[in-house]
Write a structure and sequence with these properties.
CATH architecture: 3-Layer(aba) Sandwich
Largest sheet: 4 strands, antiparallel
Strand order of the largest sheet: 1-2-4-3
Helix content: 25-40%
CATH class: Alpha Beta
Bound molecules: flavin mononucleotide
CATH topology: NADH Oxidase
Number of helices: 5
Distance between the termini: 35 Å
Strand content: 15-25%
CATH superfamily: NADH Oxidase
Length: 175
């Protein structure tokens, strides 16, 4: 089998940010498998800070779409998974929870693609006033950061995959 036909490689290489969705719901078994993939992500010191808010209620999805200035596709998407970090207990200056949650969010997006659906990463952390508008809708406690939201559904647009290696951006053996 040519390496690019490997299903994992195929999911990674064909993933694009899709912002138009059909109204079809995401099957529960797909939703749960996406969560399992998120939990399979690596974690610094195995501290496992990631927490998830799974949103399927139309009223909450619509409220998130209102609140998120770059998340209007949530008016269409049937599923949102907010990837959150429990930051309590981290030493001062240690923000490994960002990296852990980014790994989990990317696992979700690659799994989404691998299962024939589409998605897009919606940034929340460090974006103001977006962050302050989204947090109360999700009801997260003070010590929890909302890193980002994966908007998920069956795509209603297609995009060509990224292709190739930008050699000008790659340094070999040293910069
Ligand atoms: C950290 C991060 C935050 C992002 N935030 C948003 C966002 O708030 N809204 C959005 O529509 N896309 C967002 N994106 C998606 C990017 O716009 C997208 O990845 C980029 O344009 C490249 O397109 P591609 O994902 O199809 O390769 C985000 C991506 C990352 C990695």
């Amino acid at each position: 089998m040519p390496m690019k036909e490997n299903p994992v490689i195929g999911a990674i290489l064909s993933r694009r940010s899709i912002r138009k969705f059909r109204s079809d719901p995401v099957p529960p078994e797909v939703r749960d498998l996406l969560l399992e993939c998120a939990f399979a992500a690596p974690s610094a010191h195995n501290r496992r800070p990631c927490r998830f808010v799974v949103v399927e209620e139309r009223a909450v999805l619509d409220a998130l779409a209102e609140a998120h200035d770059s998340g209007k596709m949530l008016f269409q998407a049937p599923l949102a998974i907010a990837v959150c970090a429990e930051t309590a207990g981290y030493p001062e200056g240690d923000r490994a929870w960002v990296e852990d949650c980014a790994a989990a969010l990317e696992n979700i997006l690659v799994a989404v693609r691998g299962l024939g659906l589409d998605g897009v990463w919606l940034k929340v952390m460090d974006r103001h006033p977006r962050n302050e508008l989204v947090r109360p809708l999700l009801g997260v406690p003070e010590s929890v950061q909302v890193i980002g939201i994966a908007a998920v559904g069956f795509g209603a647009e297609e995009k060509a995959p990224h292709e190739g290696i930008r050699e000008d951006l790659v340094h070999r053996n040293r910069w």
